[in-house]
Design a protein that fits this description.
With 213 residues, the protein is an alpha+beta fold. 35% of the residues lie in helices and 26% in strands. α2 packs parallel to α5. The termini are far apart.
Amino acid sequence: MTNFIPIFPLSIVVYPGETLNLHIFEPRYKQMVNDCFTNKKPFGIPTVLDNAVTEKGTLLEIQSIEKVYDDGKMDVVTKGIKVFNTLELIKVLPDKLYDGAIVTYPTNSEDLRSDLMRSVLTGIRELHKMLNVTKLFKKPDDKLCSYDVAHHAGLSLQEEYELLCLLREDQRLEYLKRHLQKVLPIVSGMEDLKERIQLNGHFKELKGFNLDL
């Protein structure tokens, strides 16, 4: 079954269940938000990669319009609902400034996998400790899913999109687990490098290493 939805292409990945705060300032998206909010209709955010709209994205519902400014700009709270596949982009809509898409909604397994999640959480917390980051998740560990933690694992935009394309929870957790196994030794090595630089006066000028990479 296909569906038509308004779309708001952005260079981000939004996951189902994620709360996303948006500041709306372009006329076409002010119109889209007003239409969706008035009619209680969702809209989609397909990810933009390499200046192109990708096939997959996430359907969102508008939970509230927090503020409307004098010039019509808005602060909007939205929440991700489910992943969609784009079949066709509709670039001209009658009397509308925004674009749309014909989409389908693939079957997506979100069954919790506590064994894999424990391993992923251990890796994420080790990464955060190395980077001196504190993150408290809003759910108990045994209620977390891959979508709840993916933005906190140090993925690139491309990698976040690749995870969005995985439609089974065990696949997504395995993806995160492999990513952390790859990145943790790199970050650990950068910590060692930082220590050597700090101890060696000759190299103190090299303090520009970005530890968030």
